[in-house]
Write a structure and sequence with these properties.
Strand content: under 5%
Number of helices: 16
Radius of gyration: 21 Å
Largest sheet: none
Helix content: over 70%
Shape: globular
Order of helices and strands: HHHHHHHHHHHHHHHH
Distance between the termini: 25 Å
């Protein structure tokens, strides 16, 4: 009997603390390769190819990112093997259902992203629903792979078609991060429904979620608008259109907080608060990673509805780097929170038997406790 329990020792050694260590090492290794790679090639040639709409330095950048992700993955796998003498956390995430779901998720990402962000010019993206769904159900690695492949296919495979986007490829690493975080949040049960929650936990959950929204508003909106050009003598230099955008953003944040509280207490489901917090965290991380990419590679103009926010912040007096970051700190948390809510609702419509068949499905829907 004791001999039969030996595999559990490996599982304990490679538990969530071990997982965190190897993920951290993988991320650090990938970021180090990107920094060293960009430093070695110098400034990327910003000349735009009129046929593909890609900058001349795109191939160099894509190669650096590809090498970085490969190095990060190898580092992760090496650390896991040293910890457990196995690669179970990788192999068990890629069952037949996951392999079938990934291309479907990629198609969902591209169709929705092209429609919402590019065609309708809305200041959100909605291009990571498939990525997050795979991450939650299958795990961090399939989620990251889905996001990475979706953005690369979006640019390099679909180039010249109505669904192609020359702006997607540099953000492949951001898409991978989104899938990675979705897998981690899924493991920790952020996407579980928590019905019939008592009043006290509901109040605490609402307070935390509203605090997150308030922090985003304070650090993302106030520095550029209320603390800067829109207060005092500089107000006259700002066009009314951009002042209206600032007011609309503020109203949207307030309405979101009100609707969140109403929904929490009507449904009495604390899971919604978890979703808001998880989406906000994912959005902030995505903004911090994507802002320098957007500013350096595209000059802050990515052909989506978020470009108007960048212009708004610049009109309010921010420089390009700051404007892109502040746009990201507004658009990304809102976008990821909305996307998390969509995935949360979608998971609620699926049968427990179906979701439990995915590698991480039981943890995601709550049939297995973490």
């Amino acid at each position: 009997m004791l001999a039969g329990r030996q595999p559990d020792n490996h599982e304990e050694e490679g538990g969530m603390s071990g997982s965190f260590i190897r993920v951290l090492i993988g991320v650090v290794a990938a970021l180090a390769v990107i920094v060293l790679g960009l430093a070695s090639v110098g400034a990327l040639d910003p000349t735009v190819d009129p046929d593909t709409f890609l900058i001349a330095g795109s191939n160099q950048f894509a190669l650096i990112v590809a090498i970085a992700l490969l190095v990060g993955f190898v580092a992760y796998a090496l650390v896991e093997y040293l910890q457990t003498r196995r690669l179970d956390s990788i192999t068990r995430q890629f069952d037949t259902r996951t392999i079938v779901l990934i291309p479907i998720a990629i198609a969902i990402n591209i169709v929705l992203g092209q429609t919402v962000g590019t065609a309708l010019k809305m200041p959100v993206y909605m291009d990571s629903i498939g990525t997050i769904l795979v991450g939650v159900l299958a795990g961090p690695i399939p989620g990251a792979l889905t996001g990475l492949l979706a953005n690369l296919i979006w640019t390099f495979v679909l180039s010249g078609t109505p669904f192609g986007s020359p702006y997607a490829w540099p953000f492949a690493i951001v898409a991978a991060e989104i899938g990675l975080l979705a897998g981690i949040f899924g493991y920790y049960g952020f996407f579980r429904s928590r019905p019939n929650t008592p009043t006290v936990p509901l109040v605490l959950g609402a307070a935390v979620a509203i605090g997150v929204l308030a922090s985003l508003a304070y650090f993302g909106i106030l520095p550029a608008y209320l603390k800067g050009a829109l207060i005092g003598s500089d107000l006259a230099t700002v066009e009314p259109f951009f002042i209206a955008i600032a007011v609309i953003i503020g109203i949207a944040v307030v309405l979101t907080a009100i609707l969140l509280v109403v929904y929490l207490f009507l449904r009495r489901d604390l899971g919604v608060a978890y979703i808001v917090v998880g989406g906000a965290i994912c959005g902030v991380v995505s903004a911090l990673i994507s802002a320098p990419i957007s500013a350096v590679v595209f000059g802050g103009v990515t052909g989506s509805g978020t470009d108007i926010l960048v212009a708004s912040f610049q009109q309010a007096g921010a420089d390009l780097q700051t404007a892109v970051l502040q746009q990201g700190l507004i658009s990304d948390p809102i976008d990821k929170t909305l996307t998390y809510i969509v995935v949360f609702a979608l998971l609620g419509t699926l049968s427990r038997r179906f979701t439990a068949r995915f590698p991480q499905g039981e943890r995601a829907v709550g049939t297995a406790e973490g």
